[in-house]
Design goal:
Number of domains: 1
Strand order of the largest sheet: 4-1-9-12-13-14-15-16
Order of helices and strands: EEEHEEHEEEEHEEHEHHEHHEEEHHH
Radius of gyration: 20 Å
Largest sheet: 8 strands, mixed
Oligomer: single chain
Number of helices: 11
CATH superfamily: Ribokinase
CATH class: Alpha Beta
Distance between the termini: 50 Å
CATH topology: UDP-N-acetylmuramoyl-L-alanine:D-glutamate ligase
CATH architecture: 3-Layer(aba) Sandwich
Length: 347
């Protein structure tokens, strides 16, 4: 049986998005409960799904290529879980793969946007592990995923049971990735960026990369994982030193982005130029990049075409403050690519 579809295994949570603030600015969280808006303006929150599995899954559904998508994670039995299920169903993704922990709340992250003195927008994250804290690699039923072509797991460093040390492959996640490869799936992996406090856990993943067909990570992660300051060189090391099949490193707004395999060598791709006035937020841009790249892989494109489409998908995601609302169908993204210059082309 020919495999088709993409399964996303990992982080499922709800993001609580707060408006952009400046350092030292006073905001009123609950003013609307007490006075008219003309007296005090209450802080306006947005709620959206978040986490690798949900973000990439919903982005792929919006790209709308017609293949099946599965989202596998662990949730509680609460309003946040209801929002996750509603989002999946709205985007024509089954919620049957979700695992329920009735004793634990659904994971959630508070996202605070801060405008820096140089006008850059930085983010602060406050995360509650919740149900995803107990999610174990052995809870993933591979039999239900047997028909899927690609399986991406993440985020490493945000899945405590997956991050735990294991003598074979460095982490507990390695056992799942190994089983997925043995079952004929293409495997992919993503992380959240390490801090000084959890770098020791991040380094464990060096041994895990031997079971990863597509390691799609950002430049900070690639530099920390390989201990190499040059993103292009780090991209090579993911493959040549640590055994990933294909290294992919995306380098944020400035770019460029890189892909490397022993077969194709190093490929470099500039980012698309986006008017700063049109940028509503960059939450989910990395996941949008991953979704674009996996879509290309599933479609049989070469690595250069996948990298180019991924850059366009990431640029598209910037037009909304939430993680997935701005994503568009494949045809619209291809049109964006034809109409939008790249940073290297802008004088």
């Amino acid at each position: 049986m020919e495999k088709t579809g993409i399964a996303l295994i990992g982080s499922c949570l709800v993001d609580e998005l707060l408006p952009v603030v400046q350092p030292g600015q006073l905001t009123y969280v609950d003013a609307a409960r007490f006075v008219d808006a003309r007296e005090l303006v209450s802080e306006q929150k947005q709620f959206s799904v978040g986490g690798m599995a949900l973000n990439v899954g919903v982005d792929l559904a919006k790209i709308d290529a017609g293949y099946p998508i599965a989202v596998i994670g662990k949730v509680g039995r609460d309003e946040r879980a209801d929002l996750i299920r509603q989002t999946l169903r709205t985007n024509r993704i089954s919620d049957d793969y979700l695992i329920v922990d009735p004793e634990t709340e659904t994971s959630w992250t508070q996202v605070i946007y801060v405008q820096m003195p140089d006008k850059r927008i930085e983010r602060i994250f406050r995360h509650t592990l919740g149900a995803m804290g107990s999610f174990d690699p052995n809870e993933v039923d591979l039999e239900t995923l047997r028909s899927f072509k690609v399986a991406m797991v993440g985020y490493g460093l945000l899945l405590p049971q997956f991050d735990r040390q294991h003598q074979d492959g460095g982490t507990q996640m390695a056992s799942l990735l190994r089983r997925l490869q043995k079952a004929g799936h293409l495997t992919a992996l993503d992380f959240v960026s390490p801090t000084a406090e959890n770098l020791f856990r991040f380094i464990r993943y060096r041994e895990t990369l031997q079971y990863v067909d597509i390691c799609c990570i950002n430049d900070d992660q690639a530099v920390a994982l390989t201990d190499c300051r040059q993103p292009d060189r780090a991209c090579r090391l993911l493959v040549d030193r640590y055994g990933a099949g294909l290294g992919v490193v995306h380098c944020g707004a400035q770019g460029p982005n890189f892909a490397y395999s022993s077969r194709d060598g190093l490929i470099e791709c500039a980012n698309y130029q986006v008017d700063p006035q049109q940028i509503a937020g960059n939450a989910g841009a990395g996941d949008a990049f991953s979704a674009g790249f996996l879509h290309g892989i599933h479609s049989g494109w070469n690595a250069g075409a996948c990298l180019d489409f991924a850059a366009a998908a990431a640029a598209t995601s910037l037009f909304d403050a939430s993680t997935t609302a701005a994503m568009r169908p494949e045809g619209e993204i291809l049109n964006f690519m034809r109409q939008t210059p790249k940073r290297s082309e802008v004088k």
